Amino acid sequence: MNRRVFLQQSGLLGGGLLMFDEVAAKLGSQRLDKPLSIGMIGCGDRGKGVLSVIKSLPNLYAIHSYCDVLDFRLTETKKVLGDIKAKEYKDYRAMLDDKSLDAVYIAVPLNQHFKIAKDAILAGKHVYVEKTMTFTIEDAKALVQLADQHPKQTVQVGYQYRYSPLYFKVKEMISSGYLGKVSQIDCRWDRNGSWRRPVPSPDLERKINWRMYKEYSGGLAAELLSHQIDFINWAFDTHPNEIMGAGGIDIYNDGRETFDNIQVTFRYKKAGMIGNFGATCGNARDGYLFKIKGTKGMVSLLTDTGLYYPERETRKELETVDGVSGATKLVFNTDGGTPILKEPTKDGTWYALQEFYKSVQNNTIPSSNVHRGASAAICVAMANKAIYNEHIEYWKSSYDV
After folding, report:
1. pTM of the complete model
2. Which domains are assigned to the chain?
3. Which of the residues 21, 50, 295, 362 has the least number of beta carbons within 10 Å of its own beta carbon?
């Protein structure tokens, strides 16, 4: 690998897809057409957090309304919005009836994603639905079919981290061969805590702690690991052929149904890769860990920063100063890594909301579209079947969406 070509094409020292950040910043300060009238369906922590980001983009979005079935969440949301005069709903269907509403952001329990997204599309609204896109494989396929029948409406899925310049850069590095032949992917998203939310009344337990119950939730695989699962599908344009898994309620025997400790292995036969995806609620040391290992080098990613670790021979080539490139010398840290981008990226939701607006305005397909969302949702459903049923799950041709 020629060092000059590597630096110019990969842009590790600040070029390349850093332009994405600059374009997004320019978009955030200019009005392309008019602000998009948007409503929030689901006002839990995620919904309120996204509304805070939407508030910071007044040239792109006008917050039209918000909806939740719990009164105290409506009260909390009103405080988050402050002086913004938005309509309040307890029934999302009434919100969808409003002709002045352009789009909805769906941040509700996973088992409700498909129904609400379907109703929103049929009501003529653009849709941003949180990950995981759907609860079941059947719903994933049905939503793809419905969205394809309404091509003028944008459907985007909430894999916000991979909208950052960092993850676009890593995808570029993979496709350009700077990692060589990738064979192993190691992913974790760990925490040390019960994942349980306080409940003001016992009758609200399942509505508030829905992530703990199989009726509503895909557990750790859906809520955390699906981010990394989706990135691998997207970056390598692939999907696993078979999935093996194990898990249990090993830490918090508190009445929950979804496992608090899981490990799944994906075999990507066509790509010649093995993906290891694990999460526990019993130790926070690794936190978010994402390593992609190839014959020429490895990337190690957090949500907003990343390092590239060249293999020994690759590093020798990169350290050869040829006098022609005039490029800044690569600086390696004590464990042999060099930053992929100069600075940490912004919160991924900021980039994702930029993309959603552009896709609606230009009638273009977002990167995290309904087809990509379906592929990840199918993988998550397969992973949970493998974990809970203790057998290997195999990809079927009918899953190709």
Report:
1. 0.92
2. 13-161 (3.40.50.720), 176-345+371-399 (3.30.360.10)
3. 362
